């Protein structure tokens, strides 16, 4: 039976459409939103209902196609309506998500014409829009709007801080953070995230501890931002505290948090805790399995990594290129030559995944460890892309281990075509010559190192990092 075409004159239908438009759009496909849009256009002939169009604008601004919001806005203007504060807030949200600074500036002009300069909600979304865009002087305009506001909420402060940290202006964000009259968990999380992204891990941890001392409870997002810092510093005991706290608050039911905990435990050196997190997960996705395989590989448990990969496939989870990279890495570290070859072939021919530079690097390392240096060289030469210095350097390391002088010399020539400044390459070939008793050649390579002023990055221990 064909669907009956209802009109706005039917109250129940109008209420149904409005309820659909008012629903949160998370998880709603853009196809559904466009169907509602079409129904509004077709049935709007019997009368323009502004709240319905505002609700549609909101859906587009929060959906996967925020640029469609501009088309809705044009239709609203064509109907003779200017829009209200919500209209412009939704439009500016769309501009922020699309990083459309030019469109945002036009909307900014409309807000001035309509007298929204002192409207807190609209001005806050303006700050967020400019802070979210990386074009030209966007951050300058964000700060200008912020400074001109007579009244600011904590959301306004957070919007500018988040924008500054997003584009690497962490020091400016910290100055603003310290000036805040009131902070909430979003403020703290934004600053912690900024420090983590900038690799200022100790600052991130210090701020996190300060947040806890002020009795601010972390959210799932806070946990996700601090865990990379914990992992980077190997702060195992702190991670266990965060894990216990998160468990009490129910955060570990979030698969993203569990995946991050698993990865951080592995990087902190505790494969037991990583496996415990994995086994307790009620929901596992591809990232969960890949992280566990990678953890086993990093801890030298190649056989466990392969068992985990097989278990993943039996449960119907399809591997991707990152999963295969973890498996090949496990084979390389475990010296599983034949298994590595089989997985590489399965990736290419069984799953249709084109190997990247890192996959080839793993295979070169695997062949090099097995002493198959000529085969490794042939694989590099047959690669569909030009090998980078890292790939050739992997083979040079194998030449050093197995004392292959002639191949080592050829490989160094390849590396020098790509990079001439790294002193470690010269040192490796010099060592190969020395091990073979070719002292003159070793001396010549060392002299070349000094002549070209190639550098070698000095080693730093974890203790050095902690006290510097």
Written overview of the protein:
By secondary structure, the protein is mainly α. The N and C termini lie far apart (about 75 Å). The N terminus is likely disordered.
Briefly, what is this?
Helix content is 72%, strand content 0%.
Supply Rg. Answer: 29 Å
Count the beta strands. 0
For the termini, the CA-CA separation is 76 Å
Please indicate the percent range of residues in DSSP E strands (runs of 2 or more). Answer: under 5%
Oligomer: single chain
Report the structural category. Answer: mainly alpha
Anisotropy-based shape: elongated
Helix content: over 70%
Count every helix, treating DSSP H or I runs of 4 or more residues as helices. 27
- Uncertain residue ranges: 1-12
Describe this protein with a few key phrases:
single chain, 468 residues, mainly alpha, elongated
């Amino acid at each position: 039976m064909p669907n009956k075409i209802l009109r706005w004159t039917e109250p129940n239908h109008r209420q149904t459409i409005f309820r659909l438009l008012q629903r949160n759009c998370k998880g709603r496909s853009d196809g559904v939103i466009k169907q509602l849009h079409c129904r509004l256009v077709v049935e709007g002939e019997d009368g323009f209902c502004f709240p319905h169009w505002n609700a549609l604008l909101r859906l587009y601004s929060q959906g996967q196609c925020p640029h469609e919001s501009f088309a809705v806005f044009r239709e609203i203007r064509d109907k003779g309506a200017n829009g209200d504060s919500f209209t412009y807030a939704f439009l500016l949200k769309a501009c922020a998500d699309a990083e459309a600074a030019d469109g945002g500036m036009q909307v900014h002009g409309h807000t001035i014409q309509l007298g929204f300069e002192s409207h807190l909600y609209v001005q806050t979304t303006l700050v967020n829009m400019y802070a979210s865009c990386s074009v030209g002087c966007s951050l300058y305009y964000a700060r200008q709007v912020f400074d001109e506001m007579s009244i600011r909420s904590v959301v306004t402060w957070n919007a500018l801080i988040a924008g500054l940290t997003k584009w690497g202006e962490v020091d400016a964000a910290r100055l603003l953070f310290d000036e805040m009259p009131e902070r909430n968990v979003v403020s703290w999380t934004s600053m912690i995230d900024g420090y983590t992204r900038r690799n200022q891990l100790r600052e991130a941890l210090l701020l996190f501890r300060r947040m806890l001392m002020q009795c601010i409870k972390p959210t799932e997002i806070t946990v996700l931002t601090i865990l990379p810092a914990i992992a980077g510093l190997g702060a195992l005991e702190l991670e266990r505290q965060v894990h216990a706290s998160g468990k009490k608050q129910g955060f570990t039911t979030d698969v993203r948090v569990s995946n991050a905990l698993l990865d951080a435990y592995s990087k902190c050196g505790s494969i037991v805790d990583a496996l415990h997190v994995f086994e307790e997960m009620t929901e596992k996705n591809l990232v969960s399995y890949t992280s566990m395989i990678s953890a086993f590989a990093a801890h030298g448990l190649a056989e466990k990594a392969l068992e985990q990969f097989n278990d993943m496939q039996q449960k119907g989870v399809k591997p991707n290129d990152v999963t295969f990279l973890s498996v090949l890495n496990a084979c390389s570290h475990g010296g599983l030559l034949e298994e590595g070859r089989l997985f590489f072939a399965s990736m290419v021919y069984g799953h249709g995944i084109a190997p990247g530079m890192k996959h080839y690097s793993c295979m070169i390392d695997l062949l090099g460890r097995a002493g198959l240096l000529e085969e490794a060289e042939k694989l590099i030469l047959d690669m569909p892309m030009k090998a980078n210095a890292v790939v050739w350097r992997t083979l040079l390391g194998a030449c050093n281990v197995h004392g292959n002088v002639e191949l080592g010399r050829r490989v160094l020539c390849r590396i020098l075509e790509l990079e001439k400044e790294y002193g470690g390459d010269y040192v490796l070939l010099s060592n190969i010559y020395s091990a073979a008793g070719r002292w003159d050649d070793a001396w010549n390579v060392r002299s070349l190192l000094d002549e070209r002023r190639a550098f070698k990055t000095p080693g730093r221990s974890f203790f050095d990092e902690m006290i510097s």
